[in-house]
Design a protein that fits this description.
There is one protein chain. It is built from no helices and nine strands. It has 93 residues and is an all-beta fold. A three-stranded antiparallel β-sheet has the order 1-2-5, with no helix packed on it. Strands 3-4 form a two-stranded antiparallel sheet. It has a two-stranded antiparallel sheet with strand order 6-7. It is elongated.
Length: 93
């Protein structure tokens, strides 16, 4: 879920995480228009909308029980596996 910017309040699936830059690409969010040149006979040229990257600080995990973007914590179980939990309602995300 996006916290700030022109797409604030919208949510989508994370397509790619750019760990070195601290950014990520979310499906259908932060769309920019790009002029595409035709590179082969079968390809078409024109203006296409592509998703651009967002800073990780502007995005939060979506909790379905709280129905909003929330902060999360990590909880260790007895079998040493990690699970993300919602800091607000303490349920697994």
């Amino acid at each position: 879920m996006v916290l700030s910017g022109r797409d604030a309040g919208k949510s989508g699936k994370v397509l790619k995480v750019l760990t070195g830059k601290g950014r990520l690409i979310v499906e259908g969010i932060n769309l920019v228009k790009k002029h595409i040149r035709r590179r082969s006979e079968g390809e078409s040229s024109g203006i296409k909308e592509l998703p651009a990257s967002l800073n990780i600080s502007n995005v939060a995990l979506f909790c379905s029980s709280c129905n909003r973007g929330v902060r999360f914590g990590v909880k260790l179980s007895k079998d040493k596996s990690k699970a993300r939990i919602c800091k607000r309602c303490q349920r697994a995300i």
